[in-house]
Structure formats: structure tokens, C-alpha cells
Amino acid sequence: MKAITHLAAFTIGVAALTSSAFAKVPEGWETEVDAAVEIAKKEDKSVMLEFTGSDWCPPCMMMSKKVFSKKEFVEGASKDFVLVHLDFPKGDPELKKKNQPYAEKYKIEGFPTVILLDSEGKEFDRFFASEYPDIDNFLAHLKDSLEKKELD
Predict the structure, then answer these.
(1) How far apart are CA 132 and CA 120, in angstroms?
(2) Among the four 83, 87, 129, 137, which has the fewest Cβ within 10 Å?
(3) What is the set of domains in the chain, with CATH numbers?
(4) Which helix (H) or strand (E) holds 2?
């Protein structure tokens, strides 16, 4: 009986760890930049990279709660962008290590940073997400960025 109890406790613990790891990625978001660029090419979209520290960065947590996790935002932004969530949590060193090359490649200096890429993976805008702390303003900024990109 003790073996069953220990197995059950282990299984619940693993499930809790697994579900918390997956819960960090908002629904509708990718986690791989190269895959997102490929999707963007096929769907004639741009790419939005969101660099976040989900478990230690107050502005990141606020943006996640108020904007990035909301269905209205994901549906609106996904019309023109493939969304990519790149997390650097203190509580998950493996995920932080996996995403570190992107932080280095894009020279991330603070969180939450958003970088917009065209369908070829070329950067055309970057800003701190917390400059646009609600869905309407954030979507309006994405639209403005796309319009400016088209003029270039």
C-alpha cells in the first residue's frame, strides 16, 4: 500500500510540475523562433517576439495578466503576427538556458521587450511591452508598426 501511495504522490508531483511549466505559455503562442518565422512565411505574416521573466518581473506579470493571456489580444494580434513567448524564469533554469541564445542574438537589455520581425526574420521594431499596458493600445501600436514597415 505504501508503494501505491508513494507512486500516487510522485505522479501528482510530476503532473503539477509539468502543468505549471506548460501553463507559462499563453494559449495561441509559439515558443520556437525559427518555427514561427516559417509559419509567418507560409501565412504572409510578421512575427512578434515577447521576452519575459514570468516569475520575477512585475511589468512582465502585469502584461501577461492584462494583455498577453487575453483571448481578445491573441485573436487580434494573430491576424498579422505569429506570436512567440520567450520566457526567462528564475524558477526554470532549463527554459532560461534554452531561450538565452535569443536574448543574446537580439541584444535584450530589459524585460518585457517585444521585437517585431518580418516574415524573413528581419527586425523592424522593438519596444518595452509595458509602454502599452492594455489590449487596445497594444494592438494599435502593432498596427502602426506594420504600417510604418510597409512604408520602408
Answers:
(1) 26
(2) 137
(3) 26-151 (3.40.30.10)
(4) helix 2-23
CB count within 10 Å of CB 37 equals 22
Cβ atoms < 10 Å from Cβ of 137: 12
Q: How far is CA 135 from CA 27, 52, 54, 70, 128, in A?
A: 16, 17, 18, 8, 14
Q: Which residues contact 30 (CB under 8 A, 6 or more apart)?
A: 36, 39, 82, 83, 84, 85
d(CA 129, CA 78): 16
The total number of residues written for the chain in this structure: 152
pTM surpassing 0.90? no
Q: Identify the residue whose cell numbers are 531561450.
A: 99
Q: Which pairing describes strands 81-87 and 46-52: parallel, antiparallel, or unpaired?
A: parallel
Cβ-Cβ contacts under 8 Å for 104 (sequence gap 6 or more): none
- CB–CB of 118/124 below 8 Å? yes
Whose CA is closest to 80, among 37, 143, 19, 8?
143
Which pLDDT does position 52 carry in this prediction? 98
Mean pLDDT in residue range 93-119: 97
